Amino acid sequence: MRVELSSHKNSGSLNYAAIEAVQRFEQRFEMKELLHRRILRSSADHNFLPLPDHARQDFHNAHYLAAGSYGEVWRAYSRADDKSVVLKVFYARGDNGQKHYLTWDTAKGDKAMSLELGDAIKECKYAKDLQAKKNDYPIGAQRVMRCLEDHVDEHEVSHDEPLYLVLEDCTGDGGQSLDKWTSHMQSLWAHRDPTKYVEAVMYMFRQMLEGVEFMSKAGYVHHDIKPENIVIHIDVDGKEEVKLVDFGAMTPISAVNCKDETLVASATYAPPEWFGSGPEVAFSCSNPAGYDTYAMAVVLDELITGYNLYEKLERYHTATVDPAFIINCMRTGRTERRCRGKWYDQHIKHPGGSEEKLTGQFMNATLADDMKVAALLNITMEPRAVNPGMKEVLEVYKAEAIKSNWLATYLKMLAFDADARAGPEEVLKSDAMLNTHPYVEKPRLRQICKAQGFTKCLRGLFGRPMKTRQRRRSKEDAAKKTQKQQSSIEKKQA
Predict the structure, then answer these.
(1) Among the listed residues 427, 429, 410, 317, the one whose alpha carbon sits nearest the alpha carbon of residue 369
(2) I want to staple 189 with a disulfide (CB 3.0 to 4.6 A). Which of 33, 197, 323, 420 is the partner?
(3) pLDDT in tens, 371-395
(4) Beta strands, E only, 299-357
(5) DSSP reduced 3-state for 466
(6) Domain 176-445: which CATH class?
């Protein structure tokens, strides 16, 4: 049943407190839209710059991976120990549209560039601080990205030096993003053996929680947990391990930061408090880890049902967009698409919206547990809210979840009230998490090895070192290919 919400045309019935709350929400929306961080993303632009000279002194055999608004991502190998790393190289464009290395001199006067570089500095600083605390929780420390070198800090580099970061290569040979891992696992097991798929997902989920728990104990909120920021690394014995990456939205836990209205997030994974009008708008001051566990619950729902929770609420449980709202919104200079997003953000996540009406009942003390579980199944796992290819997976998941009393814990992860939400430590103590086990995907060996050469990959997986001549030849071939690409670019620029 679709929940009908009052539109802006009928806002005259609102009391003054409600009007004031909406106005505060509007102001926060404007601020977050202005400051939203530009994430590096895949691009079809292959007109990349060669690595800066300083980087080439320390790294070789570089392979271009992706480009974004202000940077390029490369995989390269250290000349010191031949281990792979990821380089984020920042660039800018001149008046003629040509790329050039970004330095602090060229960034002066450009607010967006300065914000991007400020985020990069914080990202590396927070990653290094986390690793300094790894002995306090070594298991969780293995689940987060490491920053190996910061060549961005204005106080550490010359103002005319190209700026870049050196990060841990979290995927390595055979690794992949959570999105790709999920797609691959679904194609292999969703129909053939849905039990195996559920076991693999729950083990991956446990590792994600270990990373979130570590960050919380170390004094941080990731603040942008989503599939794009979770990668799967494959160990030499075939065991798959989780890494949480991209700390651009991460923030230290403090009484000040929990009230910071400018902290960015991804709306489809952010909990209700981020959209609220109360004082604690960044995360709960008393339960900061609850922010990330909410996002984790949304990720898990997506892994099991194939659809995002926000999108399900938007499609099936929220009023249709009011045309008058869109017209008024577009008069402010926004596109129709942004205005529609703004409507749904307010009518799903804002207090009184469809999410509070639906998931708010999960923490209703007067409602029996079986009724809460029924509400969850009817909202997030009803037939129309599940990808047809995941129906067999869902049946296995529901049976296992009910048997281990997992759904009661899961409901607390989705609690609308941030202070009542389960934290990672509580979730990890549940029977469902304690009974997960390492997952080795032996049938995936051929798929894993396809990209890097089957014979070479199998030798690596079974501990047989590759012959020195073969290793040297493959690196020389790759180096020649990259050198040829760079020479071509330099000729074009000349």
Answers:
(1) 410
(2) 197
(3) 777 777 777 788 888 899 999 999 9
(4) none
(5) coil
(6) mainly alpha
